Amino acid sequence: MFELDKLIAEHNLTQQEMHTLIERLDDGMRKTLYGAAGELRDGIYGRRVFMRGLIEFSNYCKNDCLYCGIRRSNQGAHRYRLSPEAILEQCSVGHEMGFRTFVLQSGEDEWWTDDRTVALIRTIRTAFPDSAITLSIGEKSRETYQKYYDAGADRYLLRHETADDCHYNRLHPSDMRLADRMQALTDLHEIGFQVGAGFMVGSPFQTTENLVLDLLFLKKFNPHMVGIGPFLPHSETPFAHEPAGTVERTLDMVAITRLLLPEVLLPATTALGTLDSEGREYALNAGANVVMPNLSPQENRKDYAIYDNKISTGEEAAESRAALEARLKRAGYIPEYGRGDHTTWQERNYFA
Ligand code: 5AD
């Protein structure tokens, strides 16, 4: 059977078939691919789009990833760190707006020790027992992840970035290893988190074979969430002059991911919305079903600059949710503010 039909029917492809499919995609095939991904999503989640409030609470980072604008060696970055009280306040603002998932994202900031992080999670867990807490704060030991989970965190986002060892080493300094990242993802999964993996599309040195490995890794690892966005250059990084990823390739990856993992929670990412003002709608029409409006304090948003021109106002901003909702409805979707757990999620008793 032709690869695309096989992918649609069986949610599976071999490495060779995946490679052939990606290289052969043309406008007609893309229409079929995106349509099939959207229909599969509709059959499972309907037209609901899950809304998450994203709080970027610190841009201090001990890592030096070559692509990232908040890398340690970017001396030009204006660093900020929200206090626990300020984070709680943003959760309150978000809860008032209706959000029932808070995504707490930061660089790998050493001020945030295990004790401080655990105290924050407990406070949010107690104040908002009806809300999901998602962490996106990088690589930690299994013991640390377990503490976060026990304190009441539900989900963890940790993109694998690329599933190819050599490619990983070209995007990261030598003190970072793909094996560590994979171990962290495994630990999170085993502890019981809903786990998000993901990768950038069009990152420097990326080949079609790399993308194939990313997709096959996702199929095998079976994460609950997958973040896929285009690489976008940041002027104060070694990749300042590298070309951005394309909308088309990013949508290809979103749609194939939906077909490989029918039940996955798949965001229309900010990076895609930055690259193209209609990027979010395109992603939804290619099988995505999550949006993450920015709930950081307005004065800090410009400083969480992982790439140039990152959008944080207008429909990207939580406070403009009416405009975003109108846009989603116009595109035929229904904004959903509930926790929006993965279909396999089982309720926990946080206070046991
Ligand atoms: N372009 C696109 N995405 C980026 N990220 C970091 N830097 C960039 C960039 N320049 C992504 C990484 C990271 C996530 C939080 O943001 O995939 O995991």
Task: Outline the structure in words.
This protein is of the alpha/beta class. 43% of the residues lie in helices and 12% in strands. The protein has helices at residues 3-10, 15-24, 27-45, 84-97, 114-127, 142-151, 165-171, 178-191, 208-221, 247-260, 270-275, 279-284, 298-301, 321-330; strands at 48-51, 53-58, 101-106, 132-136, 155-157, 194-201, 225-230, 290-291, 334-336. The strands form two sheets. Strands 2-3-4-5-6-7 form a six-stranded parallel β-sheet. The protein is globular. 47% of the residues are buried. The mean pLDDT is 97. The protein binds 5'-deoxyadenosine. The site of 5'-deoxyadenosine has 12 residues, from loops.
Kindly name the structural category: alpha/beta
The count of β-strands is 9
Largest sheet: 6 strands, parallel
Low-pLDDT segments, ≥5 res: none
Topology as a string of helices (H) and strands (E): HHHEEHEHEHEHHEHEHHHEHHE
Question: How far apart are the termini?
Answer: 52 Å
Number of helices: 14
SS strand fraction: 5-15%
Ligand roster:
5'-deoxyadenosine
Mean pLDDT equals: 97
Taking strands numbered 1, 2, ... along the chain, how are they ordered across the largest sheet?
A: 2-3-4-5-6-7
Taken from the alpha-carbon principal axes, the silhouette is globular
Specify the helix fraction band. Answer: 40-55%
Radius of gyration: 19 Å
